[in-house]
Amino acid sequence: MEVNWLPEQVLDYIIVPLHEHLAPILDRLATIELKMQEFDEMQQKMRRFEEMEAKLQHLEAVETRMLQLEASLQRALGTFLPRVEQVLEGMEDSPSISARSSTNRGASNAPVRESVIEAAKVGDIESIQHFISQGAHQNEFDASMENALFHAVRNGHIEAVKVLLEAGIDANAVNIREQTSLMLAVHAGHKDIAEALLEHGANIDSDDDEGATAIWYASSTGHSDIVEMLIKKGASIDFGQSYEDPFTTTLEVAAQNGYAETVKTILTVGSGWFVSDLEDALCITDSPDVVWAIARAIPHEFWGEVGARAVMSATRDGRCNALEAMLQAGAPTTQRNMNGLTPLHCASSHENTAAILSLVVNGADIEASDNKGRTPLHLAAIHGKEKSVRALLAKQANRHAIDKRGRTPFDAATSDSVRDLLDDVIR
Fold first, then answer.
1. Nearest-CA neighbor of 116 among 155, 90, 82, 142?
2. Region (Disordered) spans which residues (predicted)?
3. N or C: which terminus of the chain carries fewer CB neighbours within 10 A?
């Protein structure tokens, strides 16, 4: 039976009831939209709070560093003032340099350097022995408060080092930076000199004014054989930290500089490492060999969790070489942060196309959505990362994906060039 509706009846029986039914829904949607705006404002306040907290932590770190420098200065004054007095007394009691030189020339034809330090620099044993006979080796220092031993060590003159040590020169003397001769020896890779210093009482765990020890110096320059020797002689591995960067341990400095063999040595010869130590080292290197060395040392049951965090870190920092090695070692790509962002989200927003391709090839979900329903393509569009958009589209990312605000990547795009890439008509 056909019903003929009059306009008034349509209004009374359909439009009005429909409006009455939809009105609460529309009000609810408006409330939700308002709550979302409030939530966004709250997140912005949280970000500002986090920035202020980071600045406060930086100021606290600066204050701590200033206190450490003050303590170092006090230690230096306590060390050097008696030494300066000793030098001055020695100058009063000893003949002048010119007098010593002329006396020597009269006694023999052997060349004598101007000072024991100059002789040590070139490894002139005969001149060194001459000055030793006059006691000059004990109380002569340069402007950096370095004695002859420092200069013999720095220039790799092992025989000169031995002569000075046998004459009783202080093997634990420190320069103006509180560095010892042992630190200089291991940093330069002079293993034989380092062994000679240790045999004559050099303190293996002395630290400089930044807290770095001999094994830290050896690790920072990749001298694996010296690192092994120091560990076997009792050097404390976890003692080798720097006050300037308190998170750079002996293991981390080797990893950061890409010294895979040194990392292996520290992990195999040393002991007492925690999984967190290995993760910290993994999160600062860009060396595939270092990644593999650390990955093999991490117990299998921890690798998934540790590897996932390391992947996120490498993606965020743009360490693509390390990222590729982590993925090859089986690290997962599904780790999310508190905002629901995956490594692929991070790579896309930072325009790290190499990381995007590596992650997708290794199984990353290209349509994964964060807490706001945004896919990696959404973030690439929001941040105006044209190269990221191209890379994601090449891997068949869905340009029609909808976030929780009902936006497609095209709607969220902030640049015309990105909109052009996402526009189906222009495609």
1. 142
2. 92-112
3. N
Contact 309, 316 (CB under 8 A): no
Hey, CA dihedral for 248, 249, 253, 258, is it positive or negative?
negative
Report pLDDT for 111. Answer: 47
Which residue, chain included where needed, has tokens 């120091």?
Answer: 230
The reply to whether 133 falls in a domain is no
If you average pLDDT over residues 108-124, what whole number do you get? Answer: 74
Model confidence at 11, pLDDT cuts 50, 70, 90, reads low
Centre a 10 Å sphere on the Cβ of residue 299 and count the other Cβ atoms it contains: 9
Contact 317, 346 (CB under 8 A): no
CATH number for the domain that contains residue 266: 1.25.40.20
In the chain, the largest separation of any two C-alpha atoms, in whole Å, equals 140
pLDDT for the residue numbered 108: 42
- What is the arithmetic mean of pLDDT over 6-16? 56
Give the model's pLDDT for residue 110.
Answer: 47
Domain count, the chain: 1
Would you give the DSSP letter of residue 258?
T
Residue among 259, 328, 272 at smallest CA distance from 310: 328
Q: Is the pLDDT of residue 156 over 60?
A: yes
CB 293 within 8 A of CB 260: yes
Q: Is residue 36 in some structural domain? A: no
User: Of 419, 427, 375, which Cα lies nearest the Cα of 397?
Assistant: 375
Do residues 315 and 359 touch, judged by C-beta distance below 8 A?
Answer: yes
Q: Report yes or no on 186 lying in a domain.
A: yes
Please choose, from the candidates 151, 212, 201, the residue with its C-alpha nearest in 3D space to the C-alpha of residue 179. 212
User: Are the C-beta atoms of residues 218 and 265 closer than 8 Å to each other?
Assistant: no
pLDDT grade for 97, boundaries at 50, 70 and 90: very low
3-state DSSP assignment of residue 351: coil
Backbone φ and ψ of 96, nearest 5°: -65, 160
Distance CA 109, CA 124 (A): 14
State which residues form the domain around 212.
180-272
Instruction: Read off the pLDDT of each residue in 109-133 and give the average, rounded to a whole number.
Output: 81
Share of residues in the chain with pLDDT > 70 (%) = 78
Q: Are 267 and 289 in contact (CB under 8 A)?
A: no
Nearest to 142 by CA among 115, 179, 111, 171: 115
The answer as to whether 107 is a domain residue is no
Task: Report the alpha-carbon distance of residue 388 to residue 353 in Å, rounded.
Answer: 6
Residues 370-396 have pLDDT tens digits of 999 999 999 999 999 999 999 999 999
